[in-house]
Amino acid sequence: MPDSDEITGLLERLRQGDESARSMLIGKVYPELRGIARRLLSGERSGHTFETTDLVHEAYLRLAPSAKKSRNRAQFYAVASQVMRHVLVDYARKRLADKRGGGCAAVELLDTFVVSEDHLDQVLIFEDLIRRLEKMDERSAQVVVFRFYGGMQIEEIAEELEVSPRTVKRDLRYGRAWLHAELKSRPPQGKPGFEDAPNA
Q1: Do 85 and 123 contact (CB within 8 A), yes or no?
Q2: Of the candidates 64, 61, 87, 71, the residue with the CA atom closest to the CA atom of residue 150
Q3: Would you say 146 and 160 are in contact if contact means Cβ atoms under 8 Å apart?
Q4: Which residues of 73-104 are buried (b: 16+ CB within 10 A; e: fewer)?
């Protein structure tokens, strides 16, 4: 993982107009973005349509304009979490519009959302749940998105939201509990699996 101070320094240089910092920033964050994408797509078979590289490239294209506005590493990856989320949702909607039918299998949700090309409907199910959670408890929804889509650490989320790590853990527990309850109310088919990750 790139050093937090180094990323923050590059973002500051970029905000000050130093364009040479952009390529350095890409070199530092690209491997980590690939790691996030790999986790998100770890449920996918080899040779699937949406590759890890595709997700990273599309995410970075959307993320690049926001880089100058990010004040530190935590904020940069908070934005990246939302971008990853929207890239996957947009992709799922487009792909599902091109095909019909298909059964639904369980998709495992740990600290990241695991996506399968064969069951992209799960992406939209999870998106629907996140949007509903946002209306009830916006901060808990943010914590879930940062954790699942961005793989952010508790301390990074706390820094971005300007709350204590204890508050983040409480929000994450609440978000998970709410998701558990909502998923249990769904039919056995067509709902993503959900497990609490250890040491979260």
Answers
A1: no
A2: 87
A3: yes
A4: bbbbbbbbbbbbbebbbebbeeeeeeeeeeeb
Distance CA(120)–CA(92), nearest Å, equals: 5
Distance of CA 72 to the CA centre of its chain: 18
- Evaluate whether 81 touches 141 at the Cβ level (below 8 Å): no
Residue matched to tokens 């990241």:
112
Chain position carrying tokens 């527990």: 173
Q: Which residues contact 13 (CB under 8 A, 6 or more apart)?
A: 20, 21
The 3-state DSSP class for residue 29 equals helix
Give per-residue pLDDT as tens, 58-109: 887 787 777 777 778 888 888 888 888 888 888 888 877 766 544 444 444 5
Q: pTM above 0.90? A: no
Helix (H) or strand (E) segment spanning residue 174: helix 165-184
| Both tokens assigned to 51 | 């590759």
Quote the CA–CA distance of 67 and 26 in Å, as a whole number: 10
Q: Which two tokens stand for residue 45?
A: 């078979």
